[in-house]
Amino acid sequence: MPRTKxxxxxxxxxxxxxxxxxxxxxxxxxxxxxxxIAARPGWVITPTTHKYLDLTQLVANAAKxxxxxxxxxxxxxxxxxxxxxxxxxxxxxxxxxxxxxxxRTLAASIPAGIEAPIRIYITENADGTATIxxxxxxxxxxxxxxxxxxxxxxxxxxxxALFDSLVKDAATPLG
Length: 175
Fold this sequence. Notes:
Blueprint: H1 2-23, E1 43-51, H2 52-65, E2 69-74, H3 76-84, E3 91-97, H4 99-108, E4 118-124, E5 129-135, H5 137-140, H6 145-171
Antiparallel strand pairs: 1-5, 2-3, 3-4, 4-5
Helix pairs in contact: 1-2, 1-3, 2-6, 4-6
């Protein structure tokens, strides 16, 4: 069963990436200005030298190396291009989690389960590079800490380190 699930996740991500690549060739009707993401509490924002589509694949590859699953993929860019035939700067939300974390989350706090998966946001910058942003898991789970206690705090700290490592891995220049 886990092998089938992994194949599904990889297939889902590959399908969204293929649609994004194909949609990039649509006629440009509108191209809104790309907005850089400003610093905000609880967020980690990592500009990279990678192109948007390359970075989406690098994040998926890093997730696999860090033994966390891609469980959701959403892209307004793809939706707008397919439904409206308009081109907007690239953006993709990739939800990452794993059953080993879900089990621990729910054991600590059932309401905290709504926060899974933890999302990584990839945005295309005006210069053609892309940025990875995410809310630190400890920030995401903060409202549940009183209920979740030490177990949720330990999990959030572990996930903070995992996401930090995964993003640094994906953001590292190739070469």
